Amino acid sequence: MYMKEDIVAPGTEPPYYPEAMPTAQFFLTERMVMRNTVTNLKPGDYVKFSVVVWLEGYDPDTTNDILGGMIKMEMNFTIDDDQS
After folding, report:
1. Are 2 and 30 in contact (CB under 8 A)?
2. What is d(CA 21, CA 59) in angstroms, rounded to the nearest whole number?
3. Cβ-based neighbour number of residue 48 at 10 Å
4. Are the C-beta atoms of 6 and 61 separated by less than 8 Å?
5. In angstroms, rounded to a whole number, what is the distance separating the alpha carbons of residues 74 and 72?
6. CB neighbour list of residue 2: distance below 8 Å, 6 or more residues apart
7. What is the mean pLDDT of each run of 10 residues along the chain (84 residues)?
8. Distance (Å, rounded) from C-alpha 37 to C-alpha 41?
9. 3 within 8 A of 26, measured Cβ to Cβ
């Protein structure tokens, strides 16, 4: 699970997350969630990726300013043909 890092103002408590929630890894950058390299993938081989996007209102950083807004997502897959 990946998440953006919570912004906690000095002197305030960090947000509460239920104990049942898995521990998250922070996004790599503002525009990149994660990066993964699959090695030794040969023609005819396959790798399965599952992507689950969870949008909901239990986010302390959420404001009503985004109500009725839009979201844009992009996934890029590239082949590195480096034979070295």
Report:
1. no
2. 13
3. 4
4. yes
5. 7
6. 24, 25, 26, 27, 33, 34
7. 76 80 83 86 88 72 75 85 66
8. 10
9. yes
